Amino acid sequence: MTGAMIEFGEVSKVYGGATAVDRLSLSVPRGRITVFVGPSGCGKTTSLRMINRMVEPSSGTITVDGRDVSSLPAATLRRSMGYVMQAAGLMPHRTVLDNIATVPRLNGVPRGTARARARELLDVVGLPQTLAVRYPSQLSGGQQQRVGVARALAADPPVLLMDEPFSAVDPVVRHELQQELLRLQRDLGKTIVFVTHDIDEAVLLGDRIAVFAVGGRLAQVAGPEELLRAPADDFVSGFVGRDRGFRHLGFFDDAGLAVDGAASVVLSELATARPARWAVVVDDAGRPAGWASPESPGVLVSGGSLHHAGATLRTALDAALSSPSGRGVVVDDGGRYVGTVGASEVIAQADRRRTEAQRERSRGGATPGAAAPDGEAAPAGPTSDGGRRLPVEEG
Ligand SMILES: Nc1ncnc2c1ncn2[C@@H]1O[C@H](COP(=O)(O)OP(=O)(O)OP(=O)(O)O)[C@@H](O)[C@H]1O
């Protein structure tokens, strides 16, 4: 079944005269990730919590799968949806396994069955079985968040509500958790509503992004590509940030980008090499190790970021701009040196792709060769609302 899973119809929430959410009308599509993003205090969490009636609306209607939530018992409704919050919210005196089994147990599932399912879920969220008997305080922040996600999945709910679930972990773990969520979404096809104040996270994860403004006003709903390309107003354009043009490059793959096969120097021969111009230094396996400069022979100069062939123009431009030679290093799937690209070629290619995309849009088609953000190749163009294509490989 397709279409909307959750519908907000003119929903408002007023706290003692102050409007937290202002006449919100919004469709949350089934089986996709919808992100609520915006600055602090603009009503994202309140809107999320009204879906499972942790907060009651002051006016308006919310339906889930066609049913008005106000007609359902709040406790039943809450158990029928997964909920993940910032600090994982695990029960400290229960083991990991018992935390994960909580909702199935409340739903009357026998302990043995609930625990067996909990063990399976450890695998689903990428945690080793050895953690099953630990208590939450014996886990890292990232592990706790994974347990939180496993717990939310335990009753196999069609809807997952996630309130800033990854904001308390460091950037590396956060990146891992984000990629895991995209993988889970591909495998399980849940309807996910995800709250964040981080526009980069919203663009990475969201098929649809709802931007909230101060006063609980919905400023724009769009796919990530459209949001970066065409913010609806000054508030949205300020919120998505100054470098949105650069980030928008993350929606074009590198098809057609000119890569030259500039000469390379083998690391073991660097000491005696006398390159006439900047040359990429490669190790015995053909992987880039840095650069050799004509001005300082024998010295290995550290390189910039690498561009993986097939990734987006954003990573190609970053590779060129971060390189000491001004040329970005391109590598294949195995990390082996392929060639180099210059910033001006990337920009020229971006211009061509943008023009093509504009032409397609004016014909009512999809963006040709569009890519998922941040280096993930995409099998197809975006949906008509600019929604994210499902990545086929993780960046
Ligand atoms: N229980 C409450 N009583 C009174 N006011 C509340 C209550 N809960 C939220 N608010 C107010 O409603 C507004 C929206 O809050 P909400 O938590 O939904 O915002 P948010 O966008 O999720 O913010 P943050 O990103 O900081 O979590 C804020 O001004 C907040 O102070």
- Would you identify the regions where 5 or more consecutive residues have pLDDT less than 50? 375-395
Q: Quick one: how many beta strands? A: 17
Largest sheet: 6 strands, mixed
Tell me the Rg in angstroms. Answer: 24 Å
Count, helices: 13
The CATH first-level class of the largest domain comes to Alpha Beta
**Bound ligand species:** adenosine-5'-triphosphate
CATH superfamily of the largest domain: P-loop containing nucleotide triphosphate hydrolases
Strand content: 15-25%
Helix content: 25-40%
Structural class, by secondary structure, is alpha/beta
CATH-defined fold name of the largest domain: Rossmann fold
Determine the N-to-C terminus distance.
31 Å
H/E element order: EEEHEEHEHHHHEHEHEEHHHEEEEEHEEH
How many domains, as an integer?
2
Overall mean pLDDT score?
Answer: 85
Shape descriptor: globular
The CATH architecture of the largest domain is: 3-Layer(aba) Sandwich
Name some characteristics of this structure:
globular; binds adenosine-5'-triphosphate; 2 domains; nucleotide-binding; six-stranded mixed sheet; disordered C terminus; ABC_transporter-like_ATP-bd; Rossmann fold; ATP-binding; 17 strands; 395 residues; alpha/beta; CBS-domain; single chain; four-stranded antiparallel sheet; 31% helix; 13 helices
Blueprint (SSEs and pairs):
Blueprint: E1 4-15, E2 18-29, E3 33-37, H1 44-51, E4 59-64, E5 67-68, H2 74-79, E6 81-85, H3 96-100, H4 102-106, H5 111-124, H6 141-153, E7 159-163, H7 171-188, E8 191-196, H8 199-205, E9 208-213, E10 217-222, H9 224-229, H10 234-240, H11 244-248, E11 264-266, E12 279-282, E13 288-292, E14 300-301, E15 306-308, H12 313-322, E16 327-331, E17 337-342, H13 343-362
Parallel strand pairs: 3-8, 3-9, 6-7, 7-8, 11-12, 15-16
Antiparallel strand pairs: 1-2, 1-4, 4-5, 9-10, 12-13, 13-14, 16-17
